[in-house]
């Protein structure tokens, strides 16, 4: 019984393989038939076309010249539209840079003016302190002269 079951399984597998092969051949022949039918339809379509539209060695030079001229005009129009925008962008960029630099220079000028005014105030303070010191030195010198003129025994120590 075992051998018959194994034989049956082998024969089933063999049958399935044969069926798959037949199916693939059938699909291939269907594809071949459809390809031939399509070629026939294409040939019939081309033969029905007007003589001017049929493929061949006819070359229309005027059409090529017109197409080339249209291409050149299109390229020139594209360049003509793009170049000014690029220039304006560079001008805007430089304008922005100039505004930034002007702002920076204005800020630096303001800071410098503030520093100068601060230094001028310090100079005035130092000058006023110098004049006070000069007055003090002069008064001290006068007092010294007076003390010297009063003599050694005179004065507040005596």
The low-pLDDT segments are none
Tally of helical runs = 2
The whole-number mean of residue pLDDT values reads: 82
How many E strands? 0
InterPro entries: cTAGE_MIA/OTOR
Keywords: Coiled coil, Membrane, Transmembrane, Transmembrane helix
GO biological process, one term: vesicle cargo loading
In short:
The chain has about 160 residues and is mainly alpha-helical.
Question: What does this 3D model show about the protein?
Answer:
This protein is 87% helix and 0% strand. With 158 residues, the protein is mainly alpha-helical. Among the domains are: 1-51; 110-149. Residues 116-150 form a coiled coil. Keywords: Coiled coil, Membrane, Transmembrane, Transmembrane helix. InterPro entries: cTAGE_MIA/OTOR. One of its GO terms (cellular component) is endoplasmic reticulum membrane.
Q: What is the topological layout?
A:
Layout: H1 2-48, H2 61-150
What keyword list fits this structure?
158 residues, mainly alpha, transmembrane, cTAGE_MIA/OTOR, membrane
